[in-house]
Specification:
Shape: globular
Number of strands: 0
Helix content: 55-70%
Number of helices: 5
Distance between the termini: 45 Å
Order of helices and strands: HHHHH
Strand content: under 5%
Radius of gyration: 14 Å
Largest sheet: none
């Protein structure tokens, strides 16, 4: 049975995934396998059914391609959010 994944690694994987980092970079940065990335992301998404994290990630990836920062994206939100 493989050793449990450290919580710090799990947090870093989720942060990188949400930031739109490529899977290969996440694998290399955290010294884990592709399946482990999938498991960590799936575990994170469990219980967050009200959030469409895949769409959020797609938005982040597209913004990154266009050179738009998270702060730039946030500036488009209405003030009440």
């Amino acid at each position: 049975m493989p050793a449990p994944i450290d919580d710090v690694v799990k947090r870093r994987v989720v942060q990188q995934w949400l930031a739109g980092e490529p899977r290969e970079k996440i694998i290399d940065d955290n010294n884990i396998g592709a399946g482990t990335v999938s498991i960590i992301v799936d575990e994170y998404k469990t219980g967050l059914d009200n959030f469409d994290l895949d769409s959020f990630r797609e938005l982040t990836v597209e913004a990154k391609k266009r050179g738009i920062s998270p702060n730039d994206l946030a500036s488009f939100l209405p003030p009440e959010l």
